Every structure is written in C-alpha cells, then in structure tokens.
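Dear support,

I submitted the protein below through the web form. The confirmation email said the job was done, but the results page showed an empty box. After a refresh the structure appeared. I'm attaching both so you can tell me whether what I see now is the final result or a partial one.
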Amino acid sequence: MKKYVLSFAASLALLFSYSLPITANGSVVVDRVVAVVNNEIITLSDLQREETLKKVEAKDQRLLLEDMIDRRLQMAAAKAAGMDVTDKELTEAVADIMKRNSLDSKQFEAALAKEGLTLEQYKTELREQMTLSRMFNKSVRAGVAVDEAEVRAYYERNIKNYSLPEEIRVRQIFFRVPEKAKPSETALIREKATAAAARAKKGENFVTLVKELSEGETAALGGDLGFLQRDQAIPEIEEAARTLKPGEIAGPLQCAGGFHIIKLEEIRTPVKPLEKVRDEITKMLYELKVENTYRTWLQTLRGDSNIDNRL
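What the results page shows now:
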C-alpha cells in the first residue's frame, strides 16, 4: 500500500510541479507574526508548515520566508488582475487528477489522508498552484521570445563550446606486403618504400608519386584518407602524424599489411553546425530570459508593496 501512495503523490507532483504538503509533527509552539505583506500576515506556524512541506532545515528559514512573501505578492497580483481560479475550474482539475489516477472519491480522499491531508486542504494548495501558474504564464512567459539573430549571435560568441574532436587529413603512398611474404621479399618492398619516401621528402609532388607507386584503393583518390579523428586512424599513422606539421612527410611505416609513407595535409578542429544545436541554444536562451523576466517582475511587485520582514 505504501508503494501505491507514493506513486499517487508522485503523479500529483508531476502534474502540478508541486509536492503535497505534510502536516506538522504536532509539537506545540508559541505563534507570532514573522512578516506582513501589505495587509496580510505570515505567522511562525505558517513558516513551520512550509518547512515541513519543503523539507528544509531551520537555518534556511529566511530564504523560505522570502519565497512565501513572493507567493503572497503573486497571489495578490492575480486577484487584482481577475485571474483567480474559479470553483468550477478547481472541481474540474480535481476530477481530472482522479481520472488520471483511476481513483473514485473515496480512494482519492484515502490517498490524501495517507499524506496527512484533507480534501479541502489539498484543494487550497491546488488552487494556489493553478493561480500562480496562470499568473506566471501571463506576466512572464507571454512576453518572452528568442529570435534567430539572438541564437546565431550566441553561437558565434561561444563557438568553442561546440567544438568536436580534432581531426587530421592524411595522404599516403602504400606498398603492400603479401601475407606470407618471405623476409627477403619484405626487405625489397621496404627498399622501394624508402626510396619513394626520399623522393617525396626532396619535394617531388606527392600526388604524382601516389599515382606512380601506390597500391590499394586510396591510390585512385591521390592517396587521400580524408579527415579522421586522431583515434580513428591506424595507431602507427596517428602516432607519426603527431610529430608532423601540415605539409611534412613521415615513413615508411610498417603496419596494416604493408609500408605507408604519409603526408599530413591539414589539422582542423571542426564544430557542430548551427543547425545541429539551434534547438539547444534556443531552449537555453528562452529559459534564461524567463528567469530574468521573472526576477524583474518580482522586483516590481516588491517595489510596489509594503513588506515588513520580522524574522
């Protein structure tokens, strides 16, 4: 049964982004006013119930009280704007929650009781959350948008954040060594490869040498292996390429079925194209704008109100 109740509570939290409150532990405290927001008061017992709800420690009381003040201000703004949640809307919302969780009225109230809530207490919390959500959408989200120019500007300013692993472009002259070649045959092939490497290092056109001497499929492509991430290249070629600058030549290297003479053509650090990260950037900028707009809106509400924090 405990597993069922926790699942039900999680469903409500998911629907309304708000945990169900838990009743106080029954300890007796002397109540007092800890804040006045315009004509409303917040008492110590109110704050303690909020502590239980949010599961925060007493040392965080000041921050928690500030959050409560902000919510009172938003609720007052919603009332002034005529955005209160009606009884009909609240009833429909509760009915929808019961339907989503396949509960009838008795089962729903029993589940709430397991969480220390009466139906009326839950409705009070739900009404507030619905009102705050409605007010937030109208006063904050409705005025926020991100255009293409902002996305592109952010991308260009932070291009390094979208860098991909470094890549190398290599050409090769390849001399195949038969699988069962005798040592003497291998030695002759090595001599040919050494002679070809000497010609390349003296400045002969590398592509011309590829067409004249190279074996294998890459010969038709001028020996071009294309761009490779360093860890994707044959280990011996990758290691040799690390000591080269673009235009320099190394080899012959004996690996992968023969002798390779390589020329490092280019080193690049590619970046993800804007098309691949546009949605990611748009979402990030939108959320940042929403947060900043929300903070500005709260500051305006506070500036237009009389707040007496006595904690």
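Response: this is the final, complete result; the empty box was a page-load delay. Confidence is low (pLDDT under 50) at residues 1-28.
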